[in-house]
């Protein structure tokens, strides 16, 4: 199963200057609990935005750069198709960004775990538009802003409709 996981504003903003545009500790915890123990697929810039590889996950980094070197437990590929081929077929595998990788995977993913951040914000990277008729919202959980979270946000889980 291929699952896209992202946090996007109401204007689909994801990030700016290769960084997130908000700090949502509860969303980080959710991301960690969903992706730990799984393969995570990302573009090179997303990988480079981490201080070090995320623990207890196998990283697959998509890049056009030849001879791109990565730490142990990281796999380098040159395309999304190649990345998916490296993942276990009988497990949930996650697409974690960035914008271009989301755009390439939105038509083939089975599931979307989207944290909708209730603001519109300036960004240079955006989550792709997706047709709601292709997806069924199966879970929704609202969280109010508080002392640790500057914005209200909602966890949305979509599964692809069987057409």
Automatic annotation (TrEMBL):
Catalysis performed (reactions): (6S)-5,6,7,8-tetrahydrofolate + NADP(+) = 7,8-dihydrofolate + NADPH + H(+)
Any one GO MF annotation of this record: NADP+ binding
Entry superkingdom: Bacteria
Stretches assigned to coiled coil: none
Keyword terms, alphabetized: NADP, One-carbon metabolism, Oxidoreductase
Record pathway: Cofactor biosynthesis; tetrahydrofolate biosynthesis; 5,6,7,8-tetrahydrofolate from 7,8-dihydrofolate: step 1/1
Pfam families linked: DHFR_1 (PF00186)
EC number: 1.5.1.3
A single GO cellular-component term on record: cytosol
Domain DHFR: 1-160
EC category name: oxidoreductase
SUPFAM superfamilies per record: Dihydrofolate reductase-like
Any Gene Ontology biological process: tetrahydrofolate biosynthetic process
Function: Key enzyme in folate metabolism. Catalyzes an essential reaction for de novo glycine and purine synthesis, and for DNA precursor synthesis.
Family statement: Belongs to the dihydrofolate reductase family.
Name the UniProt record assigns to this protein: Dihydrofolate reductase
Taxonomic source organism: Flavobacterium profundi
